[in-house]
Write a structure and sequence with these properties.
Elements lengths: L1 E5 L2 E7 L6 E5 L12 H4 L10 E4 L15 E3 L6 E5 L2 H4 L16 E2 L1 H5 L9 E6 L1 E8 L5 E8 L5 E7 L2 H8 L8 E7 L14 E10 L1
Amino acid sequence: MANSWKHQERCIAGIDYDTGRWIRPVCDRLYPQDGRVPIYVRLVEGREPELLDILEIPLDNTGTDFGFECENLSILPGQWNYLGKATLNDIRRQCLNFKYILHNSEKSVNPSDLKTRPFHHRRTLQLVRTNRFDIHRHTNYKGQAQWRGTIETANGCKLEKAKITDPVFVKKLDSGHQPSPNCLITVSLSIPWAPSDGESEPLCWKLIAGVIEL
């Protein structure tokens, strides 16, 4: 459900086909600071994992949570295998009614707030079905152009101008693609980040990590 940019590598996330549980495979031994997954680990049959792929990945029963991520499982040595493709009906049940997109109505979540919740309630991944999806071209603090998206659900939950980190979808936007308002979107929380001025507390920012247009 996500293969998104993370510090020049990728963040991989998906839903366990049998249990419906979110899982984020992490290379916490190679990258103990954030668990990003390098290309030589994640390739499946010589290609990038794609949205809706059903994959068999060697995983431990636990993983580094970086203080707040309940979905993380450590990647073990071994090959990743492609088993098939999921259908939209397989994943629609994940789009349940919810009051907020990842814990609140803001663009970020305070990690200290997450740490006050029971471990398995510290969700950092959520599948959202939208009936509105607006795209914005944005220049970040480094002067780099980025795509951001504003999404809204049928029950009025809204996330404004979240950074889009799905590289396949970004490539489509760069070519002039106008997305459908109806999408299944994986929203993920970033590792805590704040500007380098040192005056702001690092926050977990909400990211649009995977986009499936309906």
